[in-house]
């Protein structure tokens, strides 16, 4: 057994060789990201090591697969159920009240002077004019 150990070569590294990293250096950032010594700083709507992904709030990024003419990847983000918007940042429930009420327990609680299941009716007129523009 001792003869086997003696036959194996021994590799000694100096301290300068031991600190050499085999990681691939970061050379550029995509989507107008800024390269710093600590990595990429991504502009709004982007994330990832090289700023290659979309910063989807409630969903998954299609990343480099995004293609506006694709059947499956025609959006930057694939939103989770109940979310919409370019970055899946808008609740589907918030759009159901037309911006004139809030969704509470699956139904709209309309703001003052609005009524209807989707807060789409104005309830007050001033001199024959709708007070809220509807």
UniProtKB/TrEMBL annotation:
**Which positions carry the signal peptide feature in this UniProt record?**
1-18
UniProt-listed InterPro entries: EGF (IPR000742)
Query: Which keywords has UniProt assigned to this entry?
Result: Signal
Task: Give the top-rank taxon of the lineage listed in the UniProt record for this protein.
Answer: Eukaryota
EGF-like domain: residues covered = 77-88
| Entries under PROSITE patterns matching the protein | EGF_1 (PS00022), EGF_2 (PS01186)
The UniProt record lists the keyword Signal: yes
Q: What is this protein called?
A: EGF-like domain-containing protein
| Source organism (scientific name) | Plectus sambesii
Supply the source organism's classification.
Eukaryota, Metazoa, Ecdysozoa, Nematoda, Chromadorea
